[in-house]
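Task card 7
Instruction: Convert sequence to structure tokens.
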Amino acid sequence: MAPLIALREVSKSFTARSGTVTALDSIDLDIEAGEIFAIIGHSGAGKSTLVRLINGLEHATSGTVTVDGVVIGEQSEREMRRLRSRIGMIFQQFHLFRSRTVYGNVAYPLKLAGLPRERQRDRVAELLAFVGLTDKAWARPDQLSGGQKQRVAIARALANDPAILLADESTSALDPETTRDVLRLLRRVNAELGVTVVVVTHEMDVVRSIADRVAVLEAGRLVEVGTVFDVFSAPRTETSRRFAATVLRNRPGADDLTRLRKRHDGTLVSVTVDDDDVLGPVLTEAVREHDLRFEIVHGGIDTLQGRSFGSVTLALTGAERDIETTVDRLRAVAPVEVHA
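Output:
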């Protein structure tokens, strides 16, 4: 089956006073129907440009963008409007009409689509119930919290029953607790309504908590794509490693090692763990067979996509040969770094 969204050798350039600026460079990317897909990158990486290509607000300079079987740029404006009605959008700044009530904001795209008033009323009621804002139907945006405004924006984006929901930095203006609430709602949109969600963000916590797969952009190029677990646990590029480090801060840095050496006499060994049962058997055997002691002195285990992952640093104390044997056994089951 063809992917819902497919980019093939897509480049996008703009003309500026300084010359030609390449926002995207030879992007190949597939997004499958029904998944939550994250696009991550620093400011200027090309994330927002990529979104505008997907919803047809911009056209690629070269290459092809295909969305739900439609090649963007090869259709009439009328056909493009029909496609855009299948793509919902939510933004960082909500983009609500301040002069309209919550009901009026959600009803607006239904009104544009020419839906009869009774059907508008039923659909708005259904959507407000889904996002938990039935009691706010006649409030205006200025009377709402940031999280409530984003819920209204999500309801409005879902009004025309889209196949795709594009969330462009949709949690960047929210506090952590509200962000978690909005992300839970996006997961419901995906799981209960079957909507493919594309999340554009620079926040790895967002990727970690919601996405199935992630694409990493750097200066307009796609540098890595894979499951969230794979990109977190074994990043292949420096850009991905920097992003992963913002969330998984379990590996000791230079200052950590200096502090640990002052406190512990043993050999410091960091072990990358992606299975709860990796360390236990090896360390239990080492203690039983040798006069070896160990202490976990840094790091911890986290959960990604239902799998354990993290890094723990051990201080191993005992005979040098016994420590070497234990390190070899650890290396047989997990990546290990000995800190000399």
